[in-house]
Amino acid sequence: MNERKIGILLSYLNIALHAIVGFLYVPILLHYIGKSEYGLYQLIGSLIAYFSIMDFGLTAAVTRFYTKYKALKDKVGMENILAISLYGYGGATALSLLVGIICYWNLDGIFGASMTAGELQEARQMFLLLLFNIAVSLSTMVFRSVINAHEKFLFLKGLETVQLILQPALVILILQKYPTAMAVAVAQTVLNVGLILARIYYCFVRLHITIRFHYWNQDLFRDFKKLALSVFCVSLIDQVFWKTNQIILGIVQGTAAVAVYSIASLIYMNYMALSTAISGVYLPHVTEMVAQRKPMRELSALFIQIGRWQYYLLALVATGFMIFGRQFIQLWAGTGFEESYWITILIILPFTIDLIQNIGLAILQAMNRYDFRAKIYFLTGVLNLVLAIPLGMKYGGIGCAVATGFSMLMGNGVVMNYFYKKYIGLDIPQFWKQIGRISLSVGLCLVVGYGVDHVFPGTGKLAFLLKILGYTVLYGAVVYFMAMSPEEKEKVRGIGRKVRVKP
Predict the structure, then answer these.
(1) Where do the domains of the chain lie?
(2) How far apart are CA 173 and CA 486, in angstroms?
(3) Residue 131 · residue 104 · CB < 8 Å
């Protein structure tokens, strides 16, 4: 099994662990620190998340160009791109610290109307600690890019698995004595520094990388800057979509509203991870295909193939949540989070369009055509912000979710599909033709699932688990026999043969 397949499998293992840990972790946090403290932690985390994008797209650009030089066996180019990128990361880190200090001195003005004096004091302390965390991460991000470019997914994803397990364990240990949001931030920072040191060690000791400046290439710098700034713009708008709504709610509604929205956020971020687990490991492969000038029909075939598999999985989760989501939130988070169900639905349904096509983003990066995505995403983010402020003030989290869902539908759904077909040459009509056929089977499962849940409305944990299991089996059988191609069925059977226990 190659590293790419291992990376996909480990990605899904991490997703499963992340979901399991997260769904156990959140009730524990709510128990120890309460709804308001949890909301405070999520609010400051959402604010500090903006600083994580201040690598200005360097990470994606380093991965792309380092992979290119690696494919061409150009050792000098590999060393040179790393040396140049370090200067860029140093500048980005310094800028993030400067902007962070400015924000720190204005926290009272931003949140003074919705927070108590005690909450503001803790917010300031947490902000400084998490700012340090981000600065350390930014200055060493090049090492993660190198590991990714070498397709060492076993180490990269394995380290993420370690983080998933250790972080909640460390947090819970500290909360026994210090039940505050600040304690959560301390544990997160300590663990992050340890993992960064592990990546640095791996790059120098196992991959034997060399960082050395050889020459200045103006053409390279131009292409590098184009991709980096495009990715940065997209990352910035990502924060508008996924974090700004919580900041808006924190300003106009308070920390309790942020907590409700954060419950939905955890669900749809796990939903997103199900898709990016596949596409995320394909960037080096797509880059090599483009560098080798593979015909567009091969890229279209990969686009459709990956999209189908992503849709099989995402449709299972989306329809399952539509049927059982209310009960799940009640059992998981408790009372007071009923709005989280509708917030999640309003976001994941339009978001699915983007997620089943995100291999297209890897194609755009490999072609260095990401600038259009950046422009459209920027306009989409502006639309989201313009709608979210008034809707959030009037309708709270529901209003913010409507703004985000509508914006994603227009930008990621309508405009990007036109661009993929018209200017990239991907076979979008064939893609949606195949997704439409699969949707007939998905719709059948949804109707049957609703009916069964109505006839057997058991509310206990055991009944809930049995219904989830039953729906998963139903969905798998219907999709296998009614939607999958012969090639896909053979892959499923192949997986079954590999995992079958021999007598």
Answers:
(1) 3-497
(2) 50
(3) yes
| Two structure tokens written together for 78 | 């590999």
Q: How far are the Cα atoms of 81, 312, 471, 482, 484 from residue 477, in angstroms, in the given order? A: 49, 12, 10, 8, 10
Cβ-based neighbour number of residue 377 at 10 Å? 26
Angle at Cα 177 formed by Cα 176 and Cα 183, nearest 5°?
90
Per-residue pLDDT of the chain (503 residues; tens, 9 = 90+): 555 566 666 666 767 776 777 677 778 888 887 877 888 888 887 778 777 777 767 777 777 778 878 878 888 888 888 888 888 888 888 888 898 888 888 888 877 766 777 778 888 888 888 889 888 888 888 888 888 888 787 787 788 888 878 888 888 888 888 888 888 888 888 898 999 999 999 999 988 888 888 887 777 677 767 766 766 777 777 777 677 788 888 887 777 788 888 889 888 888 887 777 666 666 667 777 877 778 888 889 989 998 999 999 999 999 999 999 999 998 888 788 889 999 999 999 999 999 999 888 888 878 878 788 878 888 888 899 899 999 988 888 999 999 999 999 999 889 999 999 998 999 999 999 999 999 999 999 999 999 888 887 777 788 888 999 999 999 999 999 999 999 999 988 887 776 554 44
* Straight-line distance from the first to the last Cα atom of the chain, in angstroms, rounded to the nearest whole number: 24
CA-nearest of 285, 221, 229 to 80 is 221
Alpha-carbon torsion angle 439, 440, 445, 450, nearest 10: 90
Alpha helices in 207-244 (DSSP H): 218-239
Residue 171 tokens, joined: 């947090």
In whole angstroms, give the CA distance from residue 57 to residue 60.
6
Q: How far apart are CA 28 and CA 23, in angstroms?
A: 9
Phi, psi torsion values for 57, nearest 5 degrees: 80, 5
Buried residues in 474-503 as b, exposed as e (16+ CB within 10 A): ebeebbeeebbeeebeeeeeeeeeeeeeee
Long-range pairs of 173-179 with CB within 8 A, sequence gap ≥ 24? 175/28, 175/29, 175/32, 175/33, 179/32, 179/33
Q: Which two tokens stand for residue 142?
A: 């090049």
- Supply 134's token pair: 């981000």
Distance from C-alpha of 58 to C-alpha of 69, rounded to nearest angstrom: 16
**Helix or strand run (H / E) with residue 259:** helix 255-279
Give the torsion through C-alpha atoms of 422, 426, 429, 431, to 10 deg.
-150
The full DSSP string for 317-333 is HHHHHHHHHHHHHHHHH
CA angle 181, 185, 187 (to 5 degrees): 115
Apex 86 CA angle, 83 and 91, nearest 5: 140
